[in-house]
Amino acid sequence: MFLLLKKSKGLIANIIELNKFDISLFSGPLADKAKSIIPQIFKSVKKAKLDYKKEIKIPPGDTKFTPKEFWEEIIEKAKSLGIDLIGFAPVDENLMFQNDYVGGIDLLYENGIVLGMEMNYDAINTAPEPPAGLESLNIYAKLGIATNLLADFIRSKGYRVIACHPLGGPILYPAMAVNAKLGHIGKQGLLITKKFGPRQRLSMLTINAGPLPEVQEEKFEISEYCEKCRKCIHFCPVKAIFENPLVNENGTITRIDSDKCFEYFYETTGCSVCIEACPFHKLGYEALYYRRL
Q: Is the pTM of this model over 0.85?
């Protein structure tokens, strides 16, 4: 039974202090929208925490065999909930955080469903101004709600599932998204996808079901371009992105100074400069690929 439950091997997470988000930056219609969004974030975090406590009280004793049709059903349901990206990968304990300061999750089921939701292009183009920050909060709320609803759908089919909220989380989402064949990691530590560049937020479900479906990887390359570009490094307002990433003992890679990044993220309620500066956001992968030829 215990093989079904995955536990962190010691990766340290940064504390996310929800009370540090300053919504006084928003005025007029943006303030009204923020007053609607913030309670949705807290409500969706609270539901995920309560569901986790119920889940883990009596863990499942086995992994349920899952037919291909079930995964197809999950993909269709995810799309209907506004989820733009979905991938599948076994949970890697090396990527799990020792403490999930937002959701309180310390155990996961063995298989992961990684989810992504696009952020609005025009809003991100205003970064680090309030509309970009508000869009970050908006997607945290929308994806948090969608993640919980997809978890409820899976439970209704007789499976056990743990919902991991996009804000914070018990595992390194970008690295899990790479394992799930959704994209690659950029210089700023964010997932870069062929469809949206770095312009998405991520969440995850873990499930006592298998085998995971075989998903065709959409092959594309960014490392050579990112090495030459480095715009995210140069435009970061607080110089939080390392020129040379740090390789940790457990094999994980640290690309940003989290203390610098988080403080400015709080100040601007979402920053997003490293997303806005990225050509994969501004122009898209296809345009950059053909420009390079």
A: yes
